Amino acid sequence: xxxxxxxxxxxxxxxxxxxxxxxxxxxxxxxxxxxxxxxxxxxxxxxxxxxxxxxxxxxxxxxxxxxxxxxxxxxxxxxxxxxxxxxxxxxxxxxxxxxxxxxxxxxxxxxxxxxxxxxxxxxxxxxxxxxxxxxxxxxxxxxxxxxxxxxxxxxxxxxxxxxxxxxxxxxxxxxxxxxxxxxxxxxxxxxxxxxxxxxxxxxxxxxxxxxxxxxxxxxxxxxxxxxxxxxxxxxxxxxxxxxxxxxxxxxxxxxxxxxxxxxxxxxxxxxxxxxxxxxxxxxxxxxxxxxxxxxxxxxxxxxxxxxxxxxxxxxxxxxxxxxxxxxxxxxxxxxxxxxxxxxxxxxxxxxxxxxxxxxxxxxxxxxxxxxxxxxxxxxxxxxxxxxxxxxxxxxxxxxxxxxxxxxxxxxxxxxxxxx
Length: 419
Description:
Layout: H1 3-21, E1 39-47, H2 64-77, E2 85-93, H3 98-111, E3 116-118, H4 124-128, E4 133-134, E5 149-150, H5 156-169, E6 178-182, H6 188-200, E7 205-210, H7 218-234, E8 239-243, H8 246-257, E9 265-267, H9 270-275, E10 289-293, H10 298-303, H11 305-317, H12 338-357, H13 363-372, E11 399-404, E12 409-412
Parallel strand pairs: 1-2, 1-3, 3-4, 4-5, 6-7, 6-8, 8-9, 9-10
Antiparallel strand pairs: 10-11, 11-12
């Protein structure tokens, strides 16, 4: 199975979950749900990566449950949050079907009555229930307005204009004829945002295209991409901006058709591009990319003193759990550092917001404290992060990313771009 097939499967799974999690359970009973004088109930519905092996994706994040337990136990041992101890409700959620995610949301919001939820795959259901989330994946720019998903990474609709403006300042689009490519019809919204941003930057966009073949039908996708590549070449396109899922489809498609047309290109989605590295791809279609991430790279996160402190906590509390040191060349099946890094960052962000909310912890005070968080450095963030009014995401750091053909690995700059 190619990398792109794996991404396609994951995308289908995510789409299933998005539909299921759009359902709204009964509203939370009030802003103080899950909070007592001495405790805070927190849900942790982490992605059960073991379950995805059945669909051919072999990844290992280590013992995620133990990682969260170790980090939370340390917070509680040092006074908790304004005198309250965190009571975790940890559950593995199978991401390969809709029912487990919907069941987890109902269980945590209605049965366990948690105050907040950390790292759900898709936060929509929790936010609809009036339960704030921390670093939920696949989040939109904002939530319901009542509860929000506070995250280190901004959504693509916010990040794309920022990264494109930096590329423009670097002269990437100077004297270029640009083609804009979206890899799937669901990228249409992001495509329009990118087109608008490039127009404002006075970039010479001469052609735009969407690979509208049925997702997962690689033959049809490649046939369409071949036609699009020919059209771009005929239009004189000498810089391609691949949008969203197109960041994966573009190099995989060119590799599949062994295209002689291979202009420099931009991947707006570093995560989609990274997920496509390896497999059957010819490195020549990867080495000429420019992309970036709002988050520090794996090597930087692993070396962070805060992260290393969490690693020591987990190893001391659970000595039988194996945690590999981060390595860009290790396969996903050995990425056992992921669980402790995630737990370390997520619990720290939740703790900082909850502490800032003060002794009178309610949904309203938590939201106010989150929006007001400024210049905070948490494990894994590398650079100070700040939120803002109606901005439940950090916006600022941009780390340049490239592919190293000698090691066949992704390399993320250790420091963000100075804007």
